[in-house]
Write a structure and sequence with these properties.
alpha+beta, 141 residues
């Protein structure tokens, strides 16, 4: 095995420390400026709902007013579900947007609230990989 000089080792450690500190600084910056589940542009709005849970396969997250419930399409029931309702979804024709999401599969709004569906929004979470995956999203209007 070839040995490296102490100067090269010091240079490599310095570069590693700089890269690590930049990564930490970016993470801290993002955590301090963004409420998880809400996009920065929606940060000051009180009109949003946050949802997170551990999903196996495919679910619909249904929102009507301040009620939030899950319909399992395929797979197991949702574990570790957390819901924050900062403002109930209005009984009005509003456009809900996915403000932010995280997870290994897809998350999308499949139904907008209107008078025909009792002002209920639906978000489809589709976990394409086997087993469970953690998901988080925010809905704003």
């Amino acid at each position: 095995m070839k040995r490296i000089s102490s100067k090269v080792a010091y240079a490599l450690l310095t570069v590693f420390a700089i890269v690590a500190s930049v990564s930490v600084a970016v993470k801290v910056h993002a955590d301090n400026t963004t409420d998880p589940g809400v996009a920065p542009s929606q940060q000051h709005s009180s009109d949003y709902i946050k949802w997170s849970g551990n999903v196996d396969d495919k679910i619909d997250v249904c929102i009507k007013g301040s009620r939030v419930w899950v319909v399992v399409i395929n797979g197991k029931t949702v574990d570790d579900q957390i819901v924050t309702v900062n403002q109930p979804l209005p009984s009005d024709n509003v456009l809900v947007t996915l403000a932010h999401f995280s997870g290994r599969g897809s998350v999308k709004v499949t139904q907008q609230p209107d008078s025909d569906n009792g002002y209920t929004a639906i978000v489809r979470v589709n976990d394409h990989e086997g087993g469970r995956g953690d998901y988080r999203f925010g809905l704003s209007w």
